[in-house]
Write a structure and sequence with these properties.
Elements: E1 13-18, H1 21-24, H2 37-40, H3 43-46, H4 49-54, H5 56-71, H6 77-88, E2 91-96, H7 102-106, E3 111-113, E4 116-123, E5 129-131, E6 149-153, H8 164-174, E7 177-181, E8 199-203, E9 216-218, H9 222-229
Parallel strand pairs: 1-2, 1-7, 2-3, 7-8, 8-9
Antiparallel strand pairs: 4-5, 4-6
Helix pairs in contact: 6-9
Bound molecules: adenosine-5-diphosphoribose.
Length: about 230
């Protein structure tokens, strides 16, 4: 099923929700798909504050591996199409669950990062957060104040960045169309944005729990389909 041509027009108000699938074609594993991180590892050990407290070096070793992998990745045609779409519609908000920063690299501007950013670090002692893109050789890394640093991402059981969900909700409610690309839509509160939207276009090679409820559920990859939606 294809959305009718011209569903997205220059006058359209568009919101987009992306997940790990959008970066799959840039060589970054997803979480729950084949070869996904949570197929190989226990998320309790790597993506919870308790797991970090138990073994910060183990957790940092995994994040540093991911950082180095992401640093070699480039935005794909899906990321690029969204950056282009932003310039061609009346209103555009990109809400991402991804922490890889590839939307930024592709040139997207109005981005809400629901789950933080793998290129930021935060001190557990003084609370300062900063961008850290260089390779981390000492793991765990420490802050100048002597406190241990943690990755600037949102772990299971943690609250989202301040105001992020409020801004995302407002953008989805104001939009004519919500594009949902590359997410299994299993993690909340992000997935809770989908039923709030007027018209949803879902892009995923596989069906999700929302596929039967959305206006258009397109089977294919985001790098293939997103460029076709740019007005
Ligand atoms: N194009 C579009 N979709 C794809 C592609 C692709 N090339 N490849 C895979 N997908 C789809 C998969 O079918 C799957 O439905 O992307 C989805 C990825 O789902 P998950 O691995 O569950 O990732 P995501 O939905 O982003 O996870 C949400 O969970 O683990 C936490 O914090 C983490 O942000 C993450 C959150």
């Amino acid at each position: 099923m294809q959305p009718p041509n011209g569903l997205l027009k220059p006058s359209s108000k568009v919101a987009v929700l992306t997940g790990a699938g959008v970066s799959a074609e840039s060589g970054i594993p997803t979480f729950r798909g084949n070869g996904g991180y949570w197929r190989e590892h226990r998320f309790e050990d790597l993506a919870t504050p308790e797991g970090f407290a138990r073994d910060p070096k183990f957790v940092w070793t995994w994040y540093e591996e991911r950082r180095r992998g992401i640093s070699r990745a480039r935005p794909n045609a899906g990321h690029v199409a969204l950056a282009e779409m932003e310039k061609r519609v009346a209103a555009f908000t990109l809400i991402t669950q991804n922490v890889d920063g590839l939307h930024d690299l592709a040139g997207s501007k109005n981005v809400i990062k629901l789950h933080g950013d793998i290129w930021t670090v935060r001190c557990l002692k003084c609370g300062r957060e900063r961008i850290e893109r260089s390779e981390l050789n000492e793991l765990p890394p420490y802050c100048a104040c002597g406190g241990m640093l943690r990755p600037g991402v949102v772990w299971f059981g943690e609250i989202l960045p301040e105001g992020a969900m409020e801004r995302a909700t407002a953008a989805v409610r104001a939009a004519d169309v919500l594009i949902v690309a590359g997410t299994s839509a299993q993690v909340y509160p992000a997935a809770g944005l989908i039923p709030m939207a007027r018209t949803v276009i879902e892009i995923n090679p596989e069906a999700t729990g929302f596929s039967d409820d959305v206006a258009y559920s397109l089977r294919g990859t985001s790098a293939e389909i997103l460029p076709r939606l740019v007005p």
